[in-house]
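Example record used in the benchmark description.
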Amino acid sequence: MYCCFEKSRLITQDGRCKNLDISNRSKALHDLLSDALQIDDSIFVSTPMEKVVDSYDKEQVVIMIRPFGYRLSDEILKSII
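Model output (structure tokens):
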């Protein structure tokens, strides 16, 4: 899930990141997706969120939906060590 914002909402004049909390948007977006797809959001496995500067200076959310299987913790630990 990519939350796209105008550059001025994310970056200050001197190039520092602004404080913008996107975590509170997660549940609202889950609820909207659940209603639109007519499925229970309890089956959502992974929904990482990322702040993105929108190329066209408009705000939007881009969602990628794909099949996802469960992973083992060993796989994750191996990938970060």
